[in-house]
Amino acid sequence: MSYEDKVQIYELRKQGYSLEMFYGYEKHFRSLEDLEQSIVDYIDYYNNKRIKVKLKGLSPVQY
Fold first, then answer.
1. How far apart are CA 62 and CA 47, in angstroms?
2. Is the pTM of this model over 0.70?
3. How many CB atoms lie within 10 A of CB 3?
4. Does the first or last residue of the chain, that is N or C, have fewer Cβ atoms within 10 Å of its Cβ?
5. At a CB cut-off of 8 Å and minimum separation 6, what does 62 contact?
6. pLDDT digits (tens, 9 = 90+) for 1-34
7. If we measure between CA atoms, which residue out of 21, 58, 37 comes closest to residue 50?
8. What is d(CA 14, CA 36) in angstroms, rounded to the nearest whole number?
9. What radius of gyration, in Å, describes the C-alpha atoms of the chain?
10. What is the rounded CA–CA span in Å between residue 23 and residue 61?
11. For residue range 39-53, what is the model confidence (pLDDT) as tens digits?
């Protein structure tokens, strides 16, 4: 990560923005339906499977 990237992240955090980054994640979709399904899958993961330390080790739905 370059110095400029780190400064930008710091500035976003300093302003109170919540920030999640995806390093090295790039995916090409063959159709709009593939993109939509990928978004649905990610939202399911984010809300139901992702464990968050701030939520006492639970997913957002479990908390």
1. 9
2. no
3. 7
4. N
5. 55
6. 666 555 555 555 555 555 455 554 566 778 888 8
7. 58
8. 33
9. 15
10. 25
11. 898 888 888 888 777
Q: Identify which of 22, 20, 19, 38 has the alpha carbon closest to the alpha carbon of residue 30.
A: 38
What is the rounded (10 degree) CA torsion for 20, 37, 26, 60?
20
- The domain segmentation of the chain, as residue ranges, is 30-63
The encoded tokens of residue 50 equal: 């992702």
Three-class DSSP labels, the chain: CCHHHHHHHHHHHHCCCCCCCCCCCCCCCCCHHHHHHHHHHHHHHHHHHCCEHHHCCECCCCC
| Residues constituting the chain | 63
